[in-house]
Amino acid sequence: MIDHQVRVRPSADRLPREDQLAWKLAAVATGTQETDHLDPEAAGMVVNRLIDNASVAVASLARRPVGVARSQALIHSARPGASVLGAAPGVRVSPEWAAWANGTAVRELDFHDTYLAADYSHPGDNIPPLLAAAQHTGRGGADLLRGILAAYEIHVALMKGICLHAHRIDHVAHLSAATACGLGAMLRLPTGTVHQAVGQAVHTTTATRQSRKGEISSWKAFAPAFAGKAAVEAVDRAMRGEGAPSPIYEGEDGFLAWMLDGPDAAYTVALPEPDEPRRAILDTYTKEHSAEYQAQAIIDLARRLREKTGPLNRVRSVVLHTSHHTHHVIGSGANDPQKYDPTASRETLDHSVPYIFAVALEDGSWHHEHSYTPERAGRPRTVELWKKISTVEDPKWTRRYHDPDPRRRAFGGRAVITLDDGRVVEDELAVADAHPAGARPFDRDGYTRKFRTLSAGIVEPDALEAFLDAAGRLAELDTAGLAGLFPEVDTDAVAAYDAQLPKGLF
Q: How many CB atoms lie within 10 A of CB 77?
């Protein structure tokens, strides 16, 4: 890896484009190796993530934000165009709108892959716009594979090197840059073109974290889809010769100077050398439970503690000792009263670790729908327990959250449960069971099992096997074969659902 130093530069410096971070990101993307030189393990993980995305997208087809995004996309028919999950097989729309619809479906349940470092994000959000552009431009599975690996490489590097959430900037700014780079790799664009696309994408997708604060709305699902759509549009403009604000990161009125650490900002972003295998996707991990990633280990911990706690009406208090990030983003340290509100939205509840721990402790399980219903959230005994749960930041867990050694890095915490007789029950869990270092790491069978579970009753058995076969042969697929990456569903039922949604401008 090569460490690139990034700092704010005055306009008078006329920073050469080759010294700009956006150019260096673009150079990594456009220098991505040919398919037959790609790391086999990383290529296999791309297949896993295609299966993972399809699992959660299929399960969200009858959810309102997904129906809205799909309805908006279907107005924008195009040829060759790209597929929309849930639409009839022959329907094609403009690729940026396919990215919007499919990206929303992937993100809605907060149930796909994650990476946590200096910043955090869901790198699987890169896949819908890349797949849409691949279909529209006549690329095959090998090109798509190369683009996905490049997008993950850039996304992980930015999350390791530049923290956005400390400044309350939403993480999709890194996503749009990564998607633009992935598109550049897939389409074999010149480095200069990708450099301009990155600048446009970052400039148009820098937003605040209010989408994940207070009354969290459906925009949490739309935000990464918007970034993917913006990246496709940025690449289109750059291919037509249009430029971007530059330097987008280092400029004195730019991203680092005014959105992040200010005029004295300095960061280190580590990027692979030209011949270095693109393996960043292997650093990322998926979710077994539909909730914020920092809650994954907490759910598993709660299930384990049920046997030790006894009747839950005897619980006097629960304190979760965890990292700075968990405490301040999904814990009581966020100071969001909505995180204790039984009438809060699903999007708020999946960012409330006190709620999640209470339900997991009571039920001994977690379900992507049942655990979030208004009836479940409003159950009196749940509310009583929920309000007894708080979080505190523990320096030990903050250090482990940022530990450079993946064997030591941890996203869990320690639960201290005090009962009414003064007895204390406690236990801790560093990583979720499904994490690569966990008790039951996800492998291909795990991803396949997740797809079979979430698609039950939605995808017929023959269609299910056809999708898994297509995903497993990704590198061999031609353009027409990419349609096999969209599991067949009852499109009439989907259309009937969409028909009852409110109408908009178009």
A: 12
Sequence-ordered list of residues with C-beta below 8 angstroms from that of 399, at least 6 positions apart, any chain: none
For the chain, give the mean pLDDT. 94
> What is the rounded CA–CA span in Å between residue 112 and residue 11?
41
Length of the chain: 506
Let me know if the fold of 2-283 is the same as that of 293-429.
no
Q: For residue 220, is pLDDT > 90? A: no
pTM: 0.91
Burial class (CB in 10 A: 0-12, 13-18, 19+), 123: buried
pLDDT at 295 over 80: yes
Domain ranges in the chain are 2-283, 293-429
Please return the burial class of 82, using the count of CB atoms within 10 Å of its CB with bins 0-12, 13-18 and 19+.
buried
CB 260 within 8 A of CB 167: yes
What residue spans of 162-254 are helical by DSSP H? 172-187, 191-205, 219-239
CATH topology of domain 293-429: 60s Ribosomal Protein L30; Chain: A; (3.30.1330)
The answer to whether residues 6 and 157 touch, using CB atoms and an 8 Å cutoff, is no
| Domain 2-283 grouped into CATH 1.20.1250.20 | no
Percent of the chain with pLDDT over 90: 87
